[in-house]
Amino acid sequence: MKRFRAFVLAMLILFMCTACKKETLPATQPGSAQTEAGETEQTVSGVSVRIPAAQYRLARTEPEGMTVGTALLPYSGGAVLTGSMITGSADEPLRTEAAAYYTPERACTVQELPISPDGLAVQAALAGERLYYIESRQTPDGEQWLLHADGQTRVLDEALSGVSNLTAMAVQDEELLLAADGSCVLVWKQPAAEIKRFFHVRDGALLAWAKDEQMLYSIADDEIQPFCPLPDLFRTGTEALYPGENTPYDCLVFANDACFGWQIAEDAVTQLFACDTVGLYAMDVEAFCGMGNGRYLGLEFYPSEDEAAQYRLIWLTPAEGDFSEKRLIRIAGSRSNIFSMAVRDFSSLYPEYQVEFVDYEAQYGEQADQQLLMDLLYGDCPDLLFVNGLPFAQYARQGLLEDLYTWIDADETLSCTDFTQNLLRALETDGALYRLPQTYLLAMAAGLPDIVGGQEAWSMADFLDTAQAHPEIGSVFAQDDGASMLQLLLLYAPDAFIEYDAAQASFDSPDFLRLLELAKRQT
Questions:
Q1: CA distances from 428 to 387, 405, 411, 434, 435 (A)
Q2: What is the gyration radius of the CA atoms in the chain, in angstroms?
Q3: For 354-372, what is the mean pLDDT?
Q4: Engineered SS bond to 348: which of 54, 58, 116, 327, CB 3.0-4.6 Å?
Q5: What pLDDT, in 10s, does the model give residues 278-312?
Q6: What is the sign, positive or negative, of the torsion defined by CA atoms of 164, 169, 171, 172?
Q7: What is the DSSP string of 410-456?
Q8: What is the C-alpha to C-alpha distance for residues 182 and 211, in angstroms, rounded to an integer?
């Protein structure tokens, strides 16, 4: 159990949240053809799918202070992310519209987008490197639409009369195209399906994707016409289509929990990656584009507890090396969604490793614990264990587990100070650290400054002294009643009344009697 990467996987497991795993296309299937350079080719839903042998590494970064992303637009030098930046205080937030220009090397330049004080940038498009964006603002006469480009502003009220929602935007030969409320706006309105996205294909033609219809439309000579339906492979109901600029493809499609490159005139598509293998959930991807040389940039929905940063950037870079023979990491214990997410993220960081789950309970039934102990004793053991319900202290005394302090001290990126110190101490066994939790919670209490201010440390006696000195306190910890308060204190502070080493309890002590009196006055 001395593989360093296995320890990194354990670190990942600490902070994973529950989520559902979806079906993915397997790397190979019976009857699939082997092509050059380790590629495979399959027929799925009547479509020939080429699966290259490429592997990717995933990195996540914050989107330069942007809290709301509007559009991710590729161009020859990289990609532009438009959105809102929220500054100021919680009582007086200040919203600024901005554009962040990213290079393939992850350098970024942020430019503020001039708009009205009460306006919002609701759509954006590129023509070469020229950025066009639409501002929406409320006026006494109703909603007003403004087009911004090259420092100039143009009112679009006549063209967009009666429009309530813009769903897509493009610029073709210096002509503005907008999709709005089931119409395609060129110089005049034309009835059309609800367009989700415009995109240019490799020959320069402009197409439109109607998500609900699962159709593509062509736009030429001031007309919008049906072009072709999506292949059955993509028609999942949750598919998403993105522009193919900076890639060899006309467009990029997320479907069946994988990302595909689609050259529309051809009968074949290329599966670029399965989302699980690179550490993504397709449903969380809000925008995606190519950055050149097999690199990709995306915008991922990621709600935070403070509701500030709602998105993260995702960077996919081809991983170098031969991954035909991966090193194996074996894990035993309870299979869970947390485990699945940890494996997903670990695989995206280290594609040279393969994680295998060993289900002792399924294989050995009632003899599972005994078989696990035998495997540990004879060296045929997993690399990591979920120790919930297992006698890990016994395993530790027999020298069957690693002291994680040794691995943390030897690591170049981690140190013990990166962890919650009192949590580590609580998890120690005879001064060694053999386990780490998948997650933990902290219960907190707050009080008025004139009652609890200045007190740096709290014992049970301090708490009871304060409550006794303030008889006006009718509720502690916002519990429903006194019994709930007692349960909470005994759960989080049992040492106040129980001496575990001496196997003694003091539920008749003066402090516990004071606690009962406090419980009586809880409302």
A1: 14, 10, 19, 7, 8
A2: 29
A3: 84
A4: 58
A5: 888 888 899 999 999 999 999 998 766 555 557 88
A6: negative
A7: H-SS--GGGS-HHHHHHH-BTTB-----S----------HHHHTT--
A8: 12
